[in-house]
Amino acid sequence: MSIFGAIKDAIFGHAAAAATPAEAPAADAAPAAEAPAAPEVDVDAVLTGLATGDKAELNYKTSIVDLMTLLDIDHSLAHREDLAKELGYTGELNGSAEMNEWLHQEVLEQLAKNGGKVPADLLKA
């Protein structure tokens, strides 16, 4: 699985687990013509919910390392370099502030493109 896939699954999986299961249709009910579209996942709400206890001090809204830590995903430099390659980063893979800031923004952008509701103040202009 891709690193971004693990991030997405961690966030979207927590959202799905928190959602209440819908009632099953009655046995004599006609099948729906179309399946309803999957609801957007409120990324900020999921992350805020995870940021409790010892993780409450993490700066996951601006730090890729803290975001990955919050999701219990390896945030080592090697792992972040792999994530940068996966997402198409063209700068130097050296763990610089520039690379880390780009990764954080790109992860949020990709979450938004894949069904996540990300607040505008967290997305780049």
Structure, explained:
With 125 residues, the protein is mostly helical. The chain has one domain (3-14, 39-122). Helices cover 47% and strands 3% of the residues. It is built from 5 helices and 2 strands. It has helices spanning 3-18, 43-50, 64-70, 77-87, 97-113, and strands at 41-42, 116-117. It has a two-stranded parallel sheet. Helix 4 crosses helix 5. The mean pLDDT is 86.
Quickly list its features.
single chain; 5 helices; 125 residues
Summarize the structure.
The protein is built from five helices and two strands; from the N terminus they run H-E-H-H-H-H-E. It is mainly alpha-helical and 125 residues long. It has one domain (3-14, 39-122).
Provide the β-strand percentage band.
under 5%
Q: How much helix is in the residues?
A: 40-55%
CA gyration radius, whole angstroms: 17 Å
State the order of secondary-structure elements, H for helix, E for strand: HEHHHHE
Spatial gap, N to C terminus? 30 Å
The total number of structural domains is 1
Number of helices: 5
| Total strands | 2
Instruction: Please outline the major beta sheet.
Output: 2 strands, parallel
Estimated structural class: mainly alpha
Task: Give the overall shape.
Answer: globular
Mean pLDDT across all amino acids: 86
- Strand order of the biggest β-sheet: 1-2
Poorly predicted sequence stretches spanning 5 or more consecutive residues: none
